[in-house]
Amino acid sequence: MARKNNVSDIGEQINASVEEPKERSSRPMDASGFLPTGSTLFNLMLSDRADGGYALGTMANIIGDSSSGKTFLALTAFAEAAMLKRFKDYRFIYDDAEAACAFDIPYLFGDKVADRIEPPNQDTAKPASDTVQAFCDNVHDALDDGRPFIYVLDSLDSIGSEEEINKYEEQRMARAKGKDIKGSYGMTKAKGMSELFRLIIRKISKTNSLLIIISQTRDNIDPMSFSKKTRAGGRALKFYATHEVWAAIGKTHKKRERVVGVDAILKTTKNKITGKRRDTTLPIFYDYGIDDIGSCIDFLQSEGYWTKTGQKINATHFDLSCTREKLIRTIEDGHLEKELRKITGEAWSEIEASLRLDRKPKY
User: Fold this and answer.
1) What's the pLDDT score for residue 355?
2) How far apart are CA 155 and CA 71, in angstroms?
3) Residue 155 preceded by cis peptide, ω within 30
4) C-alpha 343: how far from its chain's center?
5) Are residues 305 and 277 in the same domain?
6) Does residue 233 sit in the same domain as residue 266?
7) Which residues share a beta bridge with 118?
8) Which of 248, 240, 250, 249 is nearest to 213 (CA)?
C-alpha cells in the first residue's frame, strides 16, 4: 500500500516545484510620448515622469473654477511644445470659443508661440467654434489636414448646438406672438460630444496629436474635498479622456497689497497612464506664468527632503542655505533648473515606491 503524504511532505513538494519569484520589471514610457506641461510636479502627477506630461495621441480634460489657471495651463502646453524640436511640425490650434482670452501671448509665452497659434477656422467671420457641430467639423478638418496638432478648446461650456439654437429661436418667436410655449430644448451637447469622440479618438492616436478640452464649473470647487460638479459634455467626456484634471483656487499671492498670482490646486480624477489619483499645488503669477522652481522647492521642503531653519531653506543637494527667494534666484542664475527637476523627480519616485504594497507579485 502506498504511503500517504503528510502535510510536511506536501509542503516540501510544492516548494520544490515553485520557482523563486522574479523581481517585477517596469517599462517606463519614453519621454517622446508626452508633451510637458511646464510644471515638473504636474508632469509627475500625470505620468510619473519629471519630463512627462500629457500623453500624445489622447484627449485631456481640464475642469475648474473661473480664474483657476485652466487657460494658463493650456497655453503653457503650446509654449513647451515650441521649445522642443520634435514638435516643429505640429499645428498649435487654439479654439477660443469664449472669445475671452486677452493674455499678452508674446510676453508670457514667447514670440514662437504667438507666431504659431492659429484659430481652428481660417474664416475670419467665424474663426472659433460656436456649436458642437462646428467644433466637430473643425477637429475633423484638422485631422484631414494630415499634420499632427495640439488643439485646445476653451471652453466646452461656451458652445451650444444647432438644435438648441433653432429651438430657442422658435420659442422666442412664439413668446413674441403671445403663444404658449411647450416642451424644452434640452441639451444635445452630450450626444454630439459622444459621437465626436467615438469618431476621432483613434485618428488622434494615429497622428500622435493632443486634444485639450477646458470645462467650467458652475460652482467653486472646495479645494479640500474636490466635490463633484456638473459640467458639459456628459459621460462621454470622462469616458474618452486619458487625463481628467480638476483645478481649484488656493491662496492668493500679493505684492503691495495687490493680488499678483494664485495657487492652482490640481487633482487628477482619471489617469489612464499611471492609474493613480494625485494632487499638487502650482503657483501661477499673472505676469510670469507657472512658477516651476518655486513649486519644486516647496515640494522638497514639505516632503522632508529639504529642511528649514528660521527663514532659511537648507537645500542640501545644492549645498545651500538661504531664503526661498534667494534660492530661486541662485537656481535661475546658475541654470540649475534641470538638476532641480531631476531631484524632484527622484524624490517623487522614492515616495511612490514607498506606497507600494510589500507583496509578492500575482503575475
Assistant:
1) 96
2) 9
3) yes
4) 22
5) no
6) yes
7) 93
8) 240
158-162, 305-309, 317-321, 334-338 — which is least confidently predicted?
158-162
Across all residues in the chain, what is the average pLDDT? Answer: 86
Q: Quick check: 106 and 139 in contact, CB under 8 A?
A: no
Report how far residue 289's alpha carbon sits from residue 109's, in angstroms, rounded to the nearest whole number: 8
Question: For residues 29 and 48, what is the distance between their CA atoms, to the nearest angstrom?
Answer: 10
Which pLDDT belongs to residue 20? 47
Higher pLDDT pick, 14 / 45: 45
Residue 39 corresponds to which cell in the numbers above?
510644471
Question: Residue 174 to residues 166, 168, 169, 182, 184: CA-CA distances in angstroms?
Answer: 12, 10, 9, 10, 13
> Do residues 246 and 135 share a domain?
yes
* End position of a domain, from candidates 274, 290, 306: 290
Q: Where are the beta strands (DSSP E) in 87-207?
A: 91-95, 117-118, 149-154
200-222 pLDDT, tens per residue?
A: 999 999 999 999 999 988 666 66
Please, which residues bridge with residue 95 across strands? 153
162-166, 290-294, 330-334, range with the lowest pLDDT? 162-166
Q: Is there a contact between 297 and 328 (Cβ–Cβ < 8 Å)?
A: yes
Domain region containing 217: 31-290
CATH number, domain of 235, equals 3.40.50.300
Q: Is the per-residue pLDDT at 77 higher than 90?
A: yes
Helices (H), the chain: 7-17, 40-47, 70-82, 105-109, 111-116, 132-145, 162-176, 189-207, 234-240, 292-302, 324-333, 337-354
Residue 279's contacts (CB-CB under 8 Å, 6 or more residues apart) are: 45, 226, 265, 266, 267, 268
What is d(CA 85, CA 91) in angstroms, rounded to the nearest whole number?
13
Q: Are residues 285 and 171 in the same domain?
A: yes
pLDDT of 331 over the 90 cut: yes
Q: Which of 271, 290, 309 marks a domain boundary?
A: 290
> How many alpha carbons lie under 13 Å from residue 68 in its C-beta half-sphere?
26
Which helix or strand (DSSP H or E) is residue 213 part of?
A: strand 210-216
pTM of the model: 0.85
Q: How many CA within 13 A on the CB side of residue 314?
A: 8
Q: In this structure, are 302 and 227 located in the same domain?
A: no
Q: What is the mean pLDDT of residues 72-97?
A: 97
